[in-house]
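Re: [ENG-882] Designed sequences occasionally contain unexpected residues at chain ends

Forwarding the minimal case from QA. Structure tokens:
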């Protein structure tokens, strides 16, 4: 796309098409949910939003789409880019776990994590992401490196990418003193308390599990922490920990935000059970985040057998019940997902295809912008509103069909109203850390 490389402090983007989900109010839209606008940018912020045709001069986008910079609400920046040295031997979830345990034991120092983490941030920035929530492997006391790298990069990347961090380790790691120490580390780091119940079907019915879950909730309550949980990432229908989490949140009247990721097993459970859980989630105010590329890769995989399902949870049913749904990158180039580049337009495009978020496209454009911003608490991110930063992604595509038919590699990213360099870091930069392919 031809676009000026230098812009004055005050200018108009004319004749833009914008998804109405990222705007205040409910302006009239075309059947794809887009509205035509002129947008004035002054001193790096949105100064005016007016119907197309208002401005007499400025940059004519010829109906190209303008989105706010993306919000990626679930990634793993401490694992990223490790694929060359530690691939997943068979592409399964157990294969991923074993591979990560081996790699973590050998390599995960600050000197190893930091350059990979920052490489991921550079990819995300170039693709147009402005806010990220990352999970950090937190097997206390062997996770201090992960949290110090996070704090350092959160501070040095302020103004480029807003960063949040969540602990991830099995729930039972919170049983003893290490659980208290980890919760304290999360609190002093301004983080979110997280754990995983993944892959242990039927565990929710055991009294020991419920006691642990209550302890976990009380660790969060004592410190005023929000929760973000990896739950039921399996095709085993007996994995039903989401139900237990929703009931626990309601019983305890838990007030802080809760986000849950994956919850794949819901889509292979009996409909009556799944719908009961979905209603409980709506009642408890739980936010759900879907990792469509990672779960299509991992779930339903068996050697020499064609996969029969897409690995994702009941996206449309959650939405119909009023549960906020976001989509995110999850793992990129590590044993849990071999591919990925922190490109939220790729995530949205694949989510549309995998979960059939089209015909009509409806309000799903919110699922990579306003919804994850609200679920994670990234204030003023993911929307285009008077006074917000002019952090925008500009596409040549006019319709949703044009947008989703190509990778949009020629997108323009504005930060504070100025175009940034969107060239991607070279994978060769990682060779000294993870080896060359
Ligand atoms: Zn994850």
């Amino acid at each position: 796309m031809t676009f000026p490389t230098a812009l004055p402090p005050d200018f108009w983007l004319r004749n833009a098409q914008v998804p109405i989900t990222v705007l205040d109010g409910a302006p009239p839209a075309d059947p794809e949910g887009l509205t035509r606008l002129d947008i004035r940018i002054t001193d790096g912020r949105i100064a005016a939003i007016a119907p197309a045709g208002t401005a007499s001069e400025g940059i004519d986008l010829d109906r190209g789409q303008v989105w706010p910079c993306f919000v990626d609400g679930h990634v793993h920046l401490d694992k990223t880019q490790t694929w060359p040295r530690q691939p997943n031997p068979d592409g399964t979830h157990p294969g991923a776990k074993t591979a990560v345990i081996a790699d973590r034991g050998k390599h995960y120092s600050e000197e190893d994590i930091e350059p990979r983490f920052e490489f991921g941030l550079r990819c995300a920035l170039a693709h147009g992401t402005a806010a990220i929530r990352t999970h950090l492997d937190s097997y206390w006391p062997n996770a201090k490196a992960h949290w110090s790298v996070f704090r350092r990069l959160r501070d040095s990347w302020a103004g480029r990418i807003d960063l949040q961090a969540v602990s991830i380790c099995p729930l039972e790691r919170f049983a003893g003193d290490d659980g208290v120490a980890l919760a304290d580390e999360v609190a002093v780091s301004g983080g979110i308390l997280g754990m995983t119940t993944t892959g242990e079907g039927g565990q929710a019915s055991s009294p020991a599990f419920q006691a642990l879950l209550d302890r976990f909730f009380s660790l969060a309550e004592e410190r005023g922490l929000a929760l973000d949980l990896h739950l039921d990432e399996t095709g085993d229908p007996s994995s039903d920990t989401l139900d237990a989490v929703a009931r626990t949140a309601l019983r305890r009247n838990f007030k802080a935000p809760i986000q849950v990721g994956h919850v794949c097993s819901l889509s292979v459970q009996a409909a009556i059970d799944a719908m009961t859980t979905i209603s409980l989630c709506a009642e408890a105010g739980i936010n759900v985040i879907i990792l469509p590329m990672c779960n299509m890769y991992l779930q339903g995989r068996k050697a020499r057998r064609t996969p029969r399902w897409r690995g994702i949870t009941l996206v449309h049913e959650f939405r119909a019940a009023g549960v906020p749904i976001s989509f995110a990158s999850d793992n990129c180039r590590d044993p849990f997902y071999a591919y990925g580049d922190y490109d939220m337009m790729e995530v949205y495009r694949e989510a549309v295809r995998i979960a059939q978020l089209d015909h009509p496209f409806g309000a799903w454009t919110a699922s990579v912008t306003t919804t994850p911003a609200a679920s994670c608490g990234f204030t003023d991110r993911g929307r285009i509103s008077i006074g917000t930063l002019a952090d925008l992604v500009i596409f040549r595509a006019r319709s949703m069909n044009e947008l989703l038919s190509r990778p949009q590699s020629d997108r323009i990213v504005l930060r504070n109203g100025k175009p940034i360099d969107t060239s991607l870091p070279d994978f060769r930069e990682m060779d000294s850390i993870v080896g060359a392919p």
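QA comment: On inspection the terminal residues look reasonable. The first strand starts at residue 10 and ends at 19. Proposing we downgrade this to a documentation issue.
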